[in-house]
## 1
Amino acid sequence: MMETLILTHLYFLGSVRRQVHLATLFLGTILFMLPSYINAFSLGINAFERVSKDFGLTLIGYFGIAMAILLASTSIPRDLENRSIYPVLARPVRRYQYLLAHYLALVALLACSYLFLGLCLSAAVSALTRQIDLTLFIAVFTSFLQACVVGAITSAVSTVASPALAGTVGAFVFLVGSLPGAFIRFFLVEDRDNQFAAALATGLKSALPNLAVFSLKDPIVHDITFNHSYIFALIGYAL
């Protein structure tokens, strides 16, 4: 286990040296200015707060997925290309420890990014509403779990495929896995009357992880009550 933690620390520092965090800092700056920009339209305090939360959480979610796919699809192939994997595997390190270290480094980097972006959005909204809303971090946390699932699948594919193909598979899993059932029912069946496409989409969605369950943005933004034990169920589902 110690070897895995050492490799995780090494790969985490490698991602930091690649300056991946600069994109997080840039988005954090946008999120910090976002509520003030939306407030300039004079939508009223309730509308302003909801629009800011909705747009901000959407940005955080898509950014996290993009980061997970990008890092997961390139980290292991980069080691193979640079041949830095051979000195590692020449030591008493098992292959599963090597793969797990890459994934844990990805999870650590995603956790830092999501925490920073959540703090930026929460601080920006609280500065104008004069109220601290910690429920934002529930939606941020579930988005983080979603990104971890997509990152795990992308990392697994990257061991046998090129970075481009692994990234494509990761994006496909996210798009199909997060496809709402209402879209299939109303758009493909009732509106388009395309039974084949609906059956294909339903079959693919059943075979892939249901990423739509991780979306708690709407309940948080619109103050819809939900059972908080659902969060623990999501943690178990992600694991």
Note: The chain has one domain: 2-178+215-238.
## 2
Amino acid sequence: MDINNVAELSVDFEELLELKKEKILLNPIGTLPKYSQQNIDLGLPIAIMDYQYDLVKDYRRSKKINSDRNYEQEQISNFSPSKWIYPQNFAKDDNIYKQVYHDLVVNYGYYVQQGSKYGCDFVLYEDDPDTCHSSFLLNIIDHTEKKQTLTVRELVLWQRVSNKVNKKTIIAFLAQEEKKDQGDKNLQIKYVCLDNFISDLKVIK
């Protein structure tokens, strides 16, 4: 995990459980006092990544509105004793990691976890990670970086890792898509499996 991508540290464990029901997986990073010699089961604080932060804020806002009839008369602060905010780490609106994460969680309904364990960007679960194994390893090609091309070496490495752990490798990137009616070109998220091109992740089993 890159600490420069952490937008907030929280100690609200109840929120972690509630967000998991919304398929938003946060990242406990603290050591458990009674089990300090292991790094599999972790505890507080909880890291909220920059690409997750918008969805977390939307959840908090909706919860606040539902629980407070006088919401419009109050000023909501981003800071409380249970949080520590890192605004310099907030992802920009055009950040491809934020766009892909939002698309996978909101539009496709996947559980998405950061993928440093497998050397990829995201790991995708079709169901609760506590009850099933992940299905896909996803790598993102960032169009804002100077290096926009893939080497054969990278493709082979990604494929070998995914085969070794019995998963499929997916590459996500932004591509221009022209609307026939309007003639406008918009950047759309595309997904490519190393086995075949797909327009819908759900067709890969």
Note: The chain is about 25% helix and 25% strand.
## 3
Amino acid sequence: MDIDKLTIRDDQPLANSTTITREVRSESSDEDTITMFDVANRIELALKELESKFQDTDRQFETSLSALEDKISHWNE
């Protein structure tokens, strides 16, 4: 499909059956085209990376909290 010359039709009100046709030229090549699938994949990867970082931070917090609880329990002995 040649996307350099796409035809777009603007529908007029029902009383008028004529249409206006204008030519649209593609400014970029197919390689520069980003689809919704690409966007969704990038969002999914970013969310998975963020989830992984949250899990790592959560583990570090749990380790720090456990070490702090151990120190406090030794003070009370």
Note: The first strand starts at residue 6 and ends at 11.
## 4
Amino acid sequence: MIATLVISFAALAASAGQAADPVVSEMDDFCVPFMRSAETVETVRASMTAKGLKPGVGNAFSRGDVMVQIAESRDGLRTCSISSTLPFEANLRAVQRWPNIYTLTQLQKDAGFYRWEGARYYLSVAQADDAKVVVTFTKKR
């Protein structure tokens, strides 16, 4: 019992000391809130600016080699994409370590493309042609 408790505290301390994955940080900070109806393009843009992301073209913002882009169509379809130059495997592992991944159902698992479905959105990790990896949230209608 005591050994289990000590091991649990050691694991907790080790996980607390790990740096967050940049892609997962952007997922939690911007994509997940944007999938909620209460958030708008304007409020998420303001949040990105407040958190130090640099504005790019349109609704694209960047920090280092990670770019976050949000969009909402006239009929209400929302997407949030995060692209990075990290290897596909590194991004996939980061997404698979994301605490909310366990609430999603895996739909597809192919070389260079993984896709999950949740109650509010779809999530995919894809290898792009330009050697970037794109993590995309698409809100369900």
Note: The chain has one domain: 21-139.
